[in-house]
Design brief:
The structure is a homodimer. The first copy, chain A, is α/β, with parallel strands linked by helices. Chain A is built from 17 helices and 19 strands. The longest helix of chain A has 19 residues.
Chain lengths: 490, 490
């Protein structure tokens, strides 16, 4: 069976059975079923439980997969580890193509778990009879339509029921179930305009691993961003080879958070997914050769994913040399931003003669603009108001001037968000300008917390990234440069 | 005049005049007046404007400070730079003790500004006749009572009117006006349970600088945390000496964000506050000798300030060796946290025999706890629920066991926040335990965004720090260690 075919079956099954389905809403087996039904899974769904009769959520219980008459593509196991071998034998007998095993208690618990693993290898004839995702995972998610749309839903096998999500260009591959659980809930409520297409938790990766999923996503043109959390590489050489393939594709970015970089983290990966994690040096070398982006923590992983997702969604041109201009209303914030810009390998270029002369006209004589791409816009706005010009026109003019200068590849703009000053800081015209030009513009928001959140959402709707930490802003621009440079040096 | 006396006058004046007061609510001179009145300044307030007559906000305009009959402690200038010398002469004649000059257009604009500066030096007889805060600043704030209390208010001279604030143990000294403006608004709405006592923006520090304010706050027992933003050191030696004084005081922590570490940042500080900023090496050396905490950006500056403020407010014992325990429900988050813990120089100690045996009893046989201070609590909770024990009791027991082990100096605890699971994740009992023990406990929150915010506020009320980025959590614990170690090595 070609690898991509089996991943395709796992992500787009025509039928699925939930082993360990339960009437008790507190049990995971109940919630998996609910997740499938509530999110409109279009194929056949079979609740299976040897101890149950009657119906659950409107569906008839089966005692065994062997009682199912039709073909069965995928089963999801939510039963204790010990009971899996017997049921898995029945799955093989039934001709089931793939099993997602969510239960833990395998390689990660030592000898008893390793025995179980050996049994599974035997039963599946070394995974030739049926392929395995997991064990010790939180299932797979495919999002076909946004949760607030009529065509909402897809294929949802987490034991946490998802109510909110948006379809988009991100795929997640993770050895942590959290990313198809509580953390995913966090992401979709924190970034309500960020879209995901697949989430694949691979747990101990007894059979299928990051390699097969990565390969699959590389050939899916809808997927632009692949965000990964790994505790070990299944095969570093193959991983590097696949990532090199991504370099040749213009619109693919891979971001990785690697767990187990230190001895404490390594102890943790062993007890979590039985991963013998590579240490930080080996990981660094692998990532360097792969030419992918590393994120130190989950927060960065998804800030980066958001940034790339939106840059692709709005067809922005990624920076190639790192020239950026900043428009700031505060000298202090501007200073720190300028420092960070340099610390992160970016630069604020000197203005060309023509550019500078355009700016000079907008500024009062007593406070001319800087000669390098750091615009303290406040004096220009004051001048405009004094002579009765709409400040918005000035901002538009400054933006246009900066964005038309070739050495400037993007803009950092500080915005003060306040109910009192909402009229002054109307962001709609900003959204217009930013959407007109192919260069990325990132915003740094300060001011009243609720107002910052409101503006964040307004900008998010148009896929414009904003930040409330200057360093996050600079760091997220820096990775755009890193990614585009990696793609140049093949 | 003793330095502390003049700072005392600036922060606690009995009378204040606003030069440039205006009837026009869009003008800064109007808003400064409003800020004083709306926030119940208890002394006399005089609006002064040579071009105005009648009343503003219920107060009679004066043409000049010389028209004021009573003594005048402090004047606030909100008039164009050019008109300042003449008025300042009148202030000297009147015997005003201090002037806060908010106008810009001095040293930072070059020759014309330097001429103005020289005039001011002459008029003030080298600042012997009247002391200056600024120019190019956003005034001073003293908070006497919370904004939602009857005794709200204090002394407010920013041209941004503040409506929300809480009195507390933090003092800010800043060369950026933003910290007594839009960014302060951000802080008080982001951290509604974080209290501040003073905010002092010092601008170009033509006369008074960070040194005098720092000295003043070091001798004020109410101030525990001094958060600073500087673009240059007025006198590095004196600065170091003052900071060394803080080491001898048990309950003082100084945190500094320094602008102008790079050549781009230095260009910026020159045009902002005319500061010839020290580069990163000199700054590093000064900070190292000072034994203070450095924050790379404003976000960290105030996360750190919050952490210390709350540790002092709840009388927590700061870690001395860096031993910490983590209680996590996700192996992935736990792994990254373990890695970060080590990367930041902290450690997860091995349990003592007794401690481990207590934990073993709480865990199911198939999933014993780790032998080092990384507790995946989920199996213990499952066991509890199976045998009908309240999961809260287990959490309490785990906490108590960990917090009683001497090598463990604090806890990192992950919490999943979800409306669905609110009953399971009731944080009140957690708050009880955390408040009982003198060791710091930091929480990492994931789950639904609004629910995360709700829990954040619940914890904040009790001065318990929470984070949605693992690295922030670890970094904030790390600085506690750094601070307590600096105080040990005198």
């Amino acid at each position: 069976m070609k690898v991509n075919n089996i991943i395709d079956t796992f992500l787009n099954p025509k039928s699925v059975a939930v082993i360990g389905a339960s009437k008790n809403p507190l049990k995971g087996g109940h919630r998996i079923l609910k997740n499938l039904i509530a999110n409109n899974f279009k194929g056949d769904i079979y609740p299976v439980n040897i101890n149950s009769t009657g119906k659950v959520l409107g569906l008839e219980f089966k005692k065994s997969v062997l009682d199912i008459e039709n073909d069965l593509d995928v089963v999801v196991f939510y039963v204790p580890n010990q009971s899996i071998p017997t049921i898995l034998e029945e799955c093989v007998q039934k001709g089931v193509k793939g099993a997602i095993i969510e239960a833990s208690g395998f390689e990660e618990v030592g000898n008893k778990g390793l025995e179980l693993r050996d049994q599974i290898v035997d039963i599946t004839e070394n995974f030739s009879k049926i392929r395995i995702v997991g064990p010790n995972c939180m299932g797979l998610t495919r999002i076909d339509g946004d949760s607030d749309n009529e065509d909402k839903g897809g294929f949802f096998t987490s034991f946490l029921v998802f109510n909110e999500y948006k379809r988009g260009n991100i795929a997640i591959i993770s050895q942590s179930g959290m990313l198809n659980g509580g953390y995913f809930t966090h992401l979709v409520t924190k970034y309500p305009y960020l879209g995901f297409r697949y989430i694949c938790t691979i747990g101990n990766k007894m059979d299928l691993s990051e390699l097969e999923f990565l390969d699959y996503f590389l050939s899916d043109p809808e997927i632009k961003v692949i965000a990964m959390y790994l505790e070990s590489f299944k095969d570093p050489r193959k991983f590097i080879k696949l990532c090199e393939k991504a370099k040749d594709l213009q619109n693919k970015t891979i971001i990785l958070t690697k767990g187990g970089l230190t001895s404490q983290g390594q102890k943790s990966t062993i007890s979590h997914t039985a991963s013998l994690s590579e240490n930080s040096k080996l990981t660094e070398a692998t990532i360097k050769q792969s030419g992918i982006i590393q994120a130190r923590n989950f927060y960065d992983l998804f800030e980066f994913a958001r940034t790339f997702s939106w840059m692709y969604a709005t067809n922005k041109t990624l920076p190639k040399h790192g020239g950026v201009a900043q428009i700031f209303g505060s000298g202090g914030a501007g200073t720190i931003s300028a420092d960070l810009t340099m610390q992160y390998g970016l630069k604020l270029p000197l203005f060309k003669e023509e550019t500078y002369s355009v700016l000079v006209d907008l500024f009062p004589e007593w406070m001319p603009p800087n000669k390098f791409a750091f615009v303290d816009i406040w004096p220009a706005l004051e001048k405009a108001m004094t002579i009765g010009i709409n400040p918005g026109d000035i901002i538009r003019k400054v933006y246009a001037t900066l964005l038309e200068e070739p050495e400037i590849e993007g803009i950092f703009n500080m915005l003060f968000c306040s109910k009192q000053f909402r009229v002054v800081n109307d962001v709609n015209y900003l959204i217009d300008i930013i959407s007109t030009y192919p260069k990325p513009v990132f915003l740094f928001l300060v001011g009243e917390y609720d107002e910052v959140r409101l503006v964040t959402q307004q900008l998010s709707k148009h896929s414009i990234p904003s930040f409330s930490n200057l360093e996050d802003m600079v760091k997220n621009f820096r990775i755009l440069l890193q990614d585009s440079n990696k793609k140049l040096i093949k």
